[in-house]
Amino acid sequence: MAVATPTTVRDTASIAESLRRKRDVKGVAFQAMMFLSLVITLGVLVVLLFTVISDGWPVLSQRLGGFLTSTLRPDAVDAGVVQGLKGTFYLCAIVAIVAFPLGIAAAIYMEEYAPQNWLTSFIQLNIRNLAGVPSVVYGILGLTIFVKGWGISSITGGSSPLAGGLTLSALVLPVVIITAQEAIRATPQALREAGFGVGATKWEVIKDHILPYAAPGILTGTLLSIARAAGEAAPLLLIGTISGIITRSAPWYDVTQVQDRFTAMPTLITSWAVQPDTGFSVENAAAAIVILIFFVILLNSAAIMLRNRFESKRSG
Amino acid sequence: MNDETNHDAQKQVDEMDAVQANRPTVATVATENSIEPDHPVVLSMRNLSVYYGTFRAVRDVDMDIRENEITAMIGPSGCGKSTVLRSINRMNDLIPTARVEGDLRFHGLDLYDSKVDPVEVRRRIGMVFQKPNPFPKSIYDNITYGPRIAGTPKENFDEIVETSLKRAALWDEVKDRLSESALGMSGGQQQRLCIARAIATNPDVLLMDEPCSALDPIATGMIEDLMQEIKSNYTIVIVTHNMQQAARVSDRTAFFTAQIDSENDRRTGLLVEFDRTEKIFSNPADERTENYVTGRFG
Amino acid sequence: MTATNWDITELQGSPRRQQREKRVQAVVFSAALVSILLSVMIVGSLGFEAIRYITEVDLSRLWDRGWFPRNGVFDLKTLIVATLWVTLIAMVVAVPLGLSAAIYLSEYASVRARKVLKPVLEVLAGIPSVVLGFFALRFINPNLVESWLENANSSGNMISAGIGVGILTIPLVASISEDALSSVPNALREASAGIGARKLTTTTSIVLPAAISGLVAAFIVATSRAIGETMVVFIAGGAADTALFASNPADQGLTMTAAMASLAAGSDEVVGSGLAYGSLFFVGSILFLVTMGLNVLADRLVRKYRLEY
Prior knowledge:
The structure holds three protein chains of three kinds.
Chain A: H1 12-19, H2 25-62, H3 64-69, H4 82-113, H5 118-131, H6 135-147, H7 152-156, H8 161-185, H9 189-197, H10 202-231, H11 234-238, H12 265-273, H13 278-315
Chain B: H1 3-19, H2 27-33, E1 41-52, E2 55-66, E3 70-74, H3 81-88, E4 98-106, E5 109-110, H4 118-124, E6 125-128, H5 139-149, H6 157-167, H7 171-174, H8 187-200, E7 205-209, H9 217-230, E8 235-239, H10 243-249, E9 252-260, E10 267-276, H11 277-282, H12 287-293
Parallel strand pairs in B: 2-10, 3-8, 3-9, 6-7, 7-8
Antiparallel strand pairs in B: 1-2, 1-4, 4-5, 9-10
Helix pairs in contact in B: 5-6, 5-8, 6-8, 8-9
Chain C: H1 15-56, E1 66-68, E2 73-74, H2 76-108, H3 111-125, H4 129-148, H5 158-182, H6 186-194, H7 199-210, H8 212-228, H9 231-236, E3 243-244, H10 256-265, H11 274-308
Helix pairs in contact in C: 1-11, 2-5, 2-8, 3-5, 4-5, 5-8, 6-7, 8-11, 10-11
């Protein structure tokens, strides 16, 4: 609203005129532009989903069962993603086993134990920096340490799900630490005091009160990290995940496969997407993408819903 | 720890007294002059100062807290009464920069001796906080948490829960819903649950940090009655903003105030006067106490 | 006078619990140290081979006609120019869209609208980069880029890849910008409204300037992310594992990251001459240093605005 300039003689008409709501054309246009940007962004998401679903439709509608259970074959019409699914499953499992305990433990140290000194600030700075390192660089780490590392390669078996899982664990570790730290920091001081007040030790307060309270927040971070690990391709390319034909076909529960050569969904999609045969590069790649996106969006939505429920519970 | 350090500490106190000739009445002198027989001293503070980093939050506190009495700490906000309270059960240890100087003894033991485990101190000296802070667990689990971590056998839990809740005057209200969440109780009930929870570890001393400030008058009255009930079993130290509350419930009252510290220009709390409650409120020795209790200041 | 004097054992607590405390502390401290170990391993694994590469390579081959690592030709400007183009195009896409989305969410959107819109942005943030690569190659390139530019490379080019990377970074720009905008105290907005400013004026001349360091941080972080993004360019950049120098963004291009992935993906394992293997680490080191520098800069800016408000 514009404000009337003070006048010596009361001119009610002009005051009324100045108080009248004016059309704020520029303001409305600006707001519309901001909104339009958001619509464009969301429109991209819609177009993207539409593109992959329609490209992959021939496969998804006609031979989804075979596609999910079939292996990598030279012919597009009977090739499938079972090895990719298996590889991605192993990668996510290894990330869950390695990165989460490690990340949550590190977050507990940083929030509850770390003294205020140079080492703590250094570790914190280091964690933030690690979170910004490009994923392809983690691939180099994986290649040098987990695939070819002296003594380690005999455990991982070279370019294996184990090496890949450890590489991805390193990749998501900083994110797991940071989200767990935030969840732990959000625990009310009163809860800590209540625990200490009845004679609990620090670890008892953490395990009995802080972790249960922070669990939804920590879980959100871990679900997002699994989704990220499931979708990462670059580090896997670097550690030499194969995109060709995998000879050994063992059932899911045969854990020795974690030391075998492997492929995973994102690497499989990559290798298909750049092939000249459109049966691979369009139909099969898009169908595999739909499966991957379905899984990733499921994890992400679960994480987002969990966080929203947690936040409304806390504020309400 | 031994007589020699005790002696040194006392000597230091005496010297300080000699230096500060215009210092307000020393608490111990006043109590020794009184006629009634005194209860034994459970906690004694000599020359106690608490620092946060280089900032001295409260200085030179001398107090004796006696068994089965209610000792109240009053004074304007920022005068360090809560700080002193939290140094008694070593809750201040949780603040990384906090540091205690001087002598603080519990049953003759230096509470800040390196051999003392702060966790054990907090079991022996329970605490009730400003806002009711029950665990987000069942009523039963709230009470048994302290005994459980202290290693009390499970078969005693039912009895502990009943005794603690009865002492906290809560048993009749909740005995049929022990497995329900403590968060579903009213504020006053929650605070009595917190008292029951503190009692459950079988402490000697109960520290209460403005336990009624978040409660309505009826709930406040219940807590005050409860304090009178349980004082025969415990030694209670209560910090309160409410002078009437101190006058109603306590046997002895310590009046704290804050003044600008000449060393660093920041407000530091100090103990002005410590005496029997009726004396503090009817015939205080220090003008500042009189101004405060008569409402002219604070 | 004094109550019964206790023996020190009364307050010594349980040695078993104290030992458990020490063990737990040691375990969580080691976990925190793993992050340091990771950094050391990253720097070590990059640095060792990178230094060997730079001492062995014929330096004149670092400025040549293109990137042909298996033939010993390592033209850095090919990779750098492609990286710059892709990053620039990505920022042209991501900054206006991301910033506008942030302004809308922080200044205009109702609580209910935010509740719907933010999760959708977060879903977009979770889309794997291979998917964006596919989308850039199969949709953006034929439908947008090739229809505007006749000479655009149909098997992928830097413009399509750049747009794909841009879409990938929109949610990042939006979320960091929104953090910066919402940390501007409401008192500033009220003060501005109180002297009769319109919402537009308040937003553009009060809120945006007040949040500027956070917004700049968002752009820097997004730039760093765009430089480090691999798969979109690998799939939609149009270059196989080799590339001739090209300065036209409508041509195929190989960014630093795509060159690294190509070296690895050309065959089942990174092979070729020792120098080709070494170039992977050399390029990786440059990438690491550049993104690290940008992240540290952004981090400083973010902490600056956190300090201000």
